[in-house]
Amino acid sequence: MKKFRLPTSNSVNKEVPCSGYQIIKAAFQHTEDFKELEFKRDNTTLLFCFLETLISEEKLKEYLLIPLLLEDFKGIPDELESLNGKKVDNPDKLISGILNGGNVLFLCERDEAWLFSFPKDLQRSIQEPVNEGVVRGPHDGFVENLDTNISQLRLRIKSPEFKVKYHELGDKTKTKTAVIYMKGIADEKIVKEVERRLSYISTDMILSPGYIEEFIEDDPFSLFPQLINTERPDRAMANLMEGRIIIIGEGSPTALILPVTFFAFYQSSDDYNSRWIPSTFIRMLRYVSFLIAITLPAFYIAIIAYHLEVIPHELILPLKGSVEGIPYPPLLEAFFMEITIELIREAGIRLPKPIGQTIGIVGGLVIGDAVVSAGLISNIMIVIVALTAISAFVVPSNEMSTTVRLIRFPLMIMASILGFVGLTFGLIFVFIKLCKLESFGVPYFSPLAPLQVRDLKDTFLRMPLWKMDERPRNSLTVNIKRQRDSRGWKKNEPR
Amino acid sequence: MNRDKEMITYQQFFFLIIQTQLGVGVLSLPYVMHNSVHSDGWISVLLAGLLLQGVLFVYFMLFKRFKSRNILDIAGLLFGKKIGKLITLFYILYFISVGSLILVLYARIVDRWILPHTPNWVICALLVVAGIYLSVDGLKILARFYTLVTPLVILVVLLVSYTLKDANIYYIFPIGQAGIKNIVIGSKDAVLSMLGFEIILLTFPMVSGTNRQKFKAVSFANLFITILYTYLVVVSFIYFSPEEIKILPEPLLYILKSYTFKIIERTDLLFLSIWIFLVFTSFGSYLFLAAKTGSKLFYKIKHRRLVYYFAFIIFGISFLPEFDIQFIDYMSSYIPKTSFIFILFPSFMLIVSFLFKKSEQGCEANDSNS
């Protein structure tokens, strides 16, 4: 390859008689990473304009400058078209082209503008998502680049029914956002509804899918998350194939899945990577964890404060003994411990790993031992709070885990005011809310409320894959049949 | 309102009915039955189920003649607008009074068994607020919630069944000692404990499915409740001797109180927590029914608003026993008695519609703007 050095000096004739150039020049007036280069070839002035921070210099050199300036020339339209250029008349399009990593070439004498695209490749390599690890199964994750994410999905689903629709969100940031679904499996009505809701977004920036989520979810005042956030392409793919819709935005590795139900938050890719009996066990364990996480501290408070007679009499003395010396009411004790644990958790997130461990040890020692020997908190409260904390983190989804941790506070207060009656009413409120909530027309607590017996196959249990011949109805899929008889070989044995 | 939004399936209809029926009465049912029929009370319960099936059939005939109309619309068609409105008003009063009866009885039980020192109005306020929260958003939410909590009934049955190991079957023998006349009369009390099926009168047209499917759901609900009640009555009768049961107003709770498991000492507290769910569902239904009926009379006020108003009225009524403790007894003796008028009124309507050969088509012509 011939050597070619990119000139650094700005040697543009300010009086170039080129109509679009003046507009572009005005638009990028004060930014210093805007670059212009002027060359002459065969009596034509070639004027290149681009943002050097967005463009890949290598590519620009190799695919545009060298062929145009050093090699043989076929004549202007042919040569430029063969280099993937596009003739553009609209100056606004030129500006947005430059902003998307393009390079504008003005042919001054002909008064034409051509747009080339050499975007810089700015992305980290594909890694396993830290907060959604699995034991078995694929270890790749989404990255910040939208195209890479979509190609990860496309590589998994090689079907022309895989549809992508782009939207530009954010008046200033123009964040490219993709709505992805499987035609013929997903319900087009929901796709339309999603696009309708997206079209109302008129904020100036879209920071993350969290923004989109807040703008389009059904009930923004509910504690329960109504869209799943995932960084796992395999999870996204499985949901696409069940007829759900994925939204991915440029600049964030998180995909949104909708419509979802409560129970979807308790499913993990791991469930499908191991065999069905252990998966069922683990899934049941997660639902038990949900119940423990929201009710256990409240239950304990109710017993200690009101119904000590409920526990077996062998336990009463030890329990009473551990509570006896504590000066605070059980609710205060529980709040103190819960908040300490939340503090340790929050501190642990942002600290570098070695310090995080230190905090863990200090916190663990303080909570586990010192607090009890200081006589602030009872022994059993430690057990209860620790069990609750662990249970809350069993949920595979971070959003739902936060929700679970938050719900238990009102329940604790109710239990401390009215004992079991308070706890019962607290649960009544939670369950009514779950019955009321809908996500894009899907009842949030289905298949339990409304009861959908056939969907229970993949809710509490994880039935064998060859039993799940149908897609779940709660994705509102239009194509319910998933497979015929994948274990048909059993019936037709070879002689 | 969007019609589709309010429709429930006939499977949900089943749960709606049984959850409305199961309520405060369950706890004292064996006591009531023993008071009137002695150890043959369970036969009366079976008989009541049978009688009820007849009543349900009458309802079914009525709804067959007037498709997609509820009882109030039919009353308007049969007796004219003015009387129709009067009937609506009476039904509102009825639903409100049953709602407040449930509230008062529930408060009394909670007060006696769980929270003796808590003021009654706090306990009532909780139920009322939860009831509002449930019933403002329409029948669909009610149906979903009721389906969700129905497994608790199984838990109740299991808890009660555990006591069978100490039962004495001879307590209910000889069968039929009370005499057929007493058994028949006693079935009246059993019917009262099954109140709640009136929800059919208003919600029948809000259920999707053929008439046949709906009637099947209704009949299964009746069968379920009859068998469940009979079972509970029999269990209490063979657990307690006839002498004991006379002094135990809530036999089911006493059964559980006498049992201890290794993990939980006072089973009755667990049972009561479940029972609160059941009471709550009945209360929610009546609040919803009152508001639903009310929207026929005050059609300018939204359902949501009416729920608030009626809940407030019911809450107000729940204060009356504070002034005079006798009031509970008045309520619990008079309200169920008057309820006979309201559950039998549809059969009168059926007779009228037969006599005057009125059915949907005939009435449309007379009353085109209804």
TrEMBL record, chain B:
InterPro entries: Spore_GerAB (IPR004761). It is a multi-pass membrane protein. It is found in: Membrane. The chain crosses the membrane at residues 12-31, 43-62, 83-106, 118-136, 143-164, 190-208, 220-240, 269-290, 306-328, 334-356. GO terms for biological process: spore germination. The keyword Transmembrane helix applies. Keywords: Germination, Membrane, Transmembrane, Transmembrane helix, Transport. This is Spore germination protein. It comes from Mesobacillus selenatarsenatis (strain DSM 18680 / JCM 14380 / FERM P-15431 / SF-1).
